[in-house]
Amino acid sequence: MSTLAVYPGSFDPLTNGHVDIIERGARLFDRIIVAMLVNAEKSPMFTMAERVEIARAVFKNHPNVEIDTFDGLLVNYMQRRKANVIVRGLRAVSDFEYEMQMALMNRELEKAVETVFMMPAAQYSFISSRLIKEVFSLGGRVHGLVPDLVEKKLQEKQGVKI
Ligand code: PNS
């Protein structure tokens, strides 16, 4: 049986922590879909089209990584895509409570779906999209924390309020 995994999230923007988890997932599962939640935030920094374009460019050489968007309940999307594994990254103990709630709620909604937690490389354990946006918008350096393409797109948006 081939395993199709879904890595859901907002990805506003994609960070090197996300990239690390996706690469690990692509090695572990037959296929992994990076599923971007539409309308996750009221005022995202990157449009959905930009987020998809960035992720597709970053993973263009990974044939078993697919970039897609979804709306509504994750478990409904999983059913539509016939996927059985949700991948989530765990950076620190502080992530655990929220992640456990989501994993158990998703299991309550759909028993056939399993959530698998993966740890990113230690050098990415402090990165979040929220902090990247905050640090960059206040003039801080994010080089090495996000893919080069994201850094370039952030620079293009310089001056945009978050
Ligand atoms: O990267 P994020 O923003 O922490 O991802 C959160 C996400 C997208 C995984 C979560 O909000 C989600 O699955 N939303 C879809 C709606 C849904 O299914 N909600 C119930 C989850 S228990």
List the SSEs and their pairings.
Elements: E1 4-9, H1 16-28, E2 31-37, H2 48-58, E3 65-70, H3 74-81, E4 85-89, H4 93-109, E5 114-118, H5 129-137, H6 148-156
Parallel strand pairs: 1-2, 1-4, 2-3, 4-5
The chain binds 4'-phosphopantetheine.
The site of 4'-phosphopantetheine has 10 residues, from β1 and α4.
Count of helical regions: 6
Given helix and strand content, the structural type is alpha/beta
**What is the CA-CA span between the terminal residues?**
44 Å
Shape: globular
Low-pLDDT residue spans: none
Bound molecules: 4'-phosphopantetheine
Largest sheet: 5 strands, parallel
Order of helices and strands: EHEHEHEHEHH
| Rg over CA atoms | 15 Å
Briefly summarize what is shown.
This protein has helices spanning about 15-30, 50-60, 75-80, 95-110, 130-135, 150-155; strands spanning about 5-10, 30-35, 65-70, 85-90, 115-120.
